[in-house]
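Dissemination and training. As part of the outreach component of the grant, students in the summer workshop were shown how a complex can be specified as a set of sequence lines and then modelled as a single object. The example used during the hands-on session is reproduced here so that future cohorts can follow it. Participants entered these lines:
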Amino acid sequence: MNNFQYSRAQDVADAVRQSAADSSARFIAGGTNLVDLMKYDVERPARLIDISHLPLRTVEETPDGGLRIGALVPNSDLAWHSHVKDRYPLLSSAILAGASTQLRNMASTGGNLLQRTRCLYFYDVATPCNKRKPGSGCSAIGGINRMNAILGTSAGFRRGRA
Amino acid sequence: MADSHAPAASGVASDGASSSIGKISVALLVNGARRQLEIAPWTTLLDALRDRLHLTGTKKGCDHGQCGACTVLLNGRPINACLTLVVMHEGAEVTTVEGLAGDGNLHPVQQAFIDHDAFQCGYCTSGQICSAVGLIREGRAKTRDDIRETMSGNICRCGAYPNIVAAIEEAMKAT
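and obtained this result:
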């Protein structure tokens, strides 16, 4: 992976300030997707802002009956949380159906939502990919797409505007 | 100006103004011993363990978090050492396969793997054992299916799975 600067955010405001000061920076929490993408040179951040130590690891009920999940709650902790297991079993099952024990122990809830596509053309920087480089084309349309959910195509999609 | 954003890492940059790319000081508790490293921020925990601390029991398989050969216990939980940066783990407790045995005695999981012939080539074994130790410590797996599901992040290309499951079952009973 590329060389980069590393800094640790002290609190949320500091993380936002550091990010605003450097548009090429990326936040890193669990890192299970970002580090992988960096190894493939799909992501080449000049700086990583480590937010993994911020106190965003609580799961709590809200007064209106909802659930507030901290962005840094590991997937494992969320899936096995007693309240989530009892009241949101689908969420628990969905998390446990994905990845592996090791990945779920590291991956954060916020990072889970921010994952990039697992399409192999997205990961292969030698091939066109609209998601990686808008307008370059979609290699999956005529390529290996058995594992992909390609819900129709359009000229707009091929140009990367869909 | 005091660098208030980097309490534990002397080389950590806190702003985009003038920081340079350099090595960072990180202290880990590896197999019970405090280890201090001056290390580039793009070094994975796996590479630090193998290349800097010479703990080569932890293996590099796919290097992408898919095979589980690099599994170690981070603060007691199994993780893929290949997908995390060592600089993120100041003060963390890391247990590798080298840290499991006690005074002259193998860990019960290690002994069970031998007793059940739970490997062929052995390349995946240290990762399998670290995952199994984590599985037993968490205590959620009760059935053979639970074991298979919990261990699904550890690939064995030799196909020793039946004996691996049997070994873990026995170690679960013994602990």
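The first strand of chain A starts at residue 5 and ends at 8. Students were then asked to discuss how this feature might be tested experimentally.
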